[in-house]
Design brief:
This protein is of the alpha+beta class. It has two domains: about 110 residues, Ubiquitin-like (UB roll) (Roll); about 100 residues, no CATH class. The protein has nine helices and eleven strands. A hairpin with a 2-residue loop joins strand 8 and strand 9. It is globular.
């Protein structure tokens, strides 16, 4: 595979062909803010907050770093005046849409955004698509999707009814960058109010505590046929006690949210 030498904020970095600028910056220890990126998902370029200034052949443009593959020598500036101006505009629009978001307010403080000039709305979802993509790409469940276009666009279940396929895995809540998907285990049920969905919980066969929806356990049995039954039918705390060091980071990630 070909390698290219690029310059990011005056630092030279050698990367493989088709590495994204965002990943190259991480390799160089340079932080680029983003809301829609997750290392386990294909890059999407929804939030545009990862904008950088790319110069090649004497011309510069503002590009989303997560979706820009490196295929030649480039000069990248992650903190130029154009970049900061672009990020401030993006955050202004996001804060106008979701004015109560603490995460967006913190980002605005970091970048020095003092005022939102646009009319404020009352949404809380930034439409980054992380929850949808996680449900589709990682789990293959497709319990949620986008509905509508433009200002009417939103994330919801089919026909806005209680989901017939949601497995209650919590991954949507885990990846949400603005922490708006609340999931509660109460009275033997997993309640996902945002998706208008309630799932009956089953009890851990070791300690007897409620811990996971039956749909989730059925999903895990089908996906990980090689795992012993006790691994699926016990809660995380009991798995830790039973398996100890054998609970690898990869398996822990798959099961940590039950």
């Amino acid at each position: 595979m070909s390698k290219f030498k690029i310059t990011i904020d005056d630092e030279e970095v050698v990367v493989d062909q088709n590495t994204s600028i965002l990943d190259a910056a991480k390799q160089a220890g340079i932080n680029i803010p983003t809301l829609c990126h997750h290392e386990s998902l294909e890059d999407y370029g929804a939030c545009r907050l990862c904008a950088v200034e790319v110069t090649k052949r004497g011309r510069s443009k503002i590009k989303a770093s997560c979706t820009y593959p490196i295929r030649e020598e480039l000069v990248v500036d992650t903190r130029s005046k154009r970049v900061i101006s672009a990020r401030k505009m993006i955050l202004e629009l996001l804060l106008a849409r979701c004015p109560e978001s603490q995460e967006l307010q913190d980002l605005a403080d970091d970048i020095g955004l003092k005022q939102v000039r646009f009319e404020k709305e009352d949404h809380d979802c930034i439409l980054c698509g992380l929850c949808i993509r996680t449900c589709n790409e990682i789990l293959g469940v497709e319990a949620i999707s986008f509905k509508g276009r433009g200002p009417e666009r939103e994330v919801t279940t089919p026909f806005e009814d209680p989901s017939a396929v949601c497995i209650g895995c919590k991954f949507c809540s885990y990846v949400c960058p603005v922490n708006i998907i609340d999931i509660e285990d109460k009275d033997g049920k997993r309640i996902i109010s945002r998706w208008n969905t309630e799932l009956e919980l089953v009890k851990c066969k070791t300690c007897g505590e409620y811990f996971a929806p039956q749909r989730l356990l059925d999903y895990l049995k089908n996906r990980f046929e090689e795992l012993p039954e006790v691994f699926i039918d016990t809660c995380l705390n009991c798995k830790r006690e039973i398996f100890g060091d054998k609970l690898t980071e990869n398996v822990y990630f798959e099961f940590s949210l039950i």
